[in-house]
């Protein structure tokens, strides 16, 4: 419900805590901060110590609508589905935590940043199993290894016989 459609005479009156001027010349509005925490915007600053709070009316109406949606009319089937989703969600969270631990252990073991490690997990008959892990090495770290290999070519098989 828009604020403009609220009957301000029926709205509860709240104490004005502060007034802030907002906007530029010609488009000035005054934001009245009320003790309920809501803000009422008006074209002029009020001299009164109390203002009607339309947001309190909207909040009350929304609260009653939400209570009707989540009231005792909730079926047992929906509650069972919620319990199942919680079980799946908790299992997924536990799996994600274990994957993060494996990534951290691999990164620590090989002295690489955590972002360089990728762990691949597959679903085998409803259970998550570790398939493989990949460590990405930047080209700048591989270049010295390639130079060393280029300078020391592999011996031919005929020389070793």
Describe this structure in words.
- This protein has 2 domains: 3-69; 76-150, no CATH class.
- Helix content is 39%, strand content 25%.
- The protein has 3 helices and 6 strands.
- The protein has helices at 54-69, 76-109, 139-151; strands at residues 13-22, 29-34, 39-42, 50-52, 117-124, 127-135.
- The strands form 2 sheets. It has a 4-stranded antiparallel β-sheet with strand order 3-2-1-4, with no helix packed on it.
- The radius of gyration is 33 Å and the shape is elongated.
- The termini are far apart.
- 4% of the residues are buried.
Keywords:
single chain, 161 residues, alpha+beta, 2 domains, four-stranded antiparallel beta sheet, two-stranded antiparallel ribbon, 3 helices, 6 strands
């Amino acid at each position: 419900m828009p604020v403009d459609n609220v009957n301000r005479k029926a709205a509860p009156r709240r104490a004005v805590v502060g007034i802030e001027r907002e906007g530029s010349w010609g488009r000035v509005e005054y934001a009245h901060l009320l003790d309920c925490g809501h803000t009422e915007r008006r074209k002029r600053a009020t001299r009164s110590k109390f203002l009607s709070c339309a947001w309190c009316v909207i909040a009350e109406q929304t609260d009653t609508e939400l209570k009707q949606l989540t009231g005792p009319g909730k079926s047992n089937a929906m509650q069972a589905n919620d319990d199942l989703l919680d079980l799946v969600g908790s299992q997924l969270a536990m799996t994600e935590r274990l994957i993060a631990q494996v990534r951290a252990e691999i990164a620590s073991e090989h002295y690489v940043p955590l972002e360089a490690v990728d762990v691949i997990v597959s679903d085998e008959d409803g259970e998550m199993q570790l398939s493989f892990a990949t460590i990405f090495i930047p080209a700048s770290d591989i270049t010295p290894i390639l130079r060393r290999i280029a300078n020391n070519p592999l011996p031919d098989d005929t020389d070793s016989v």
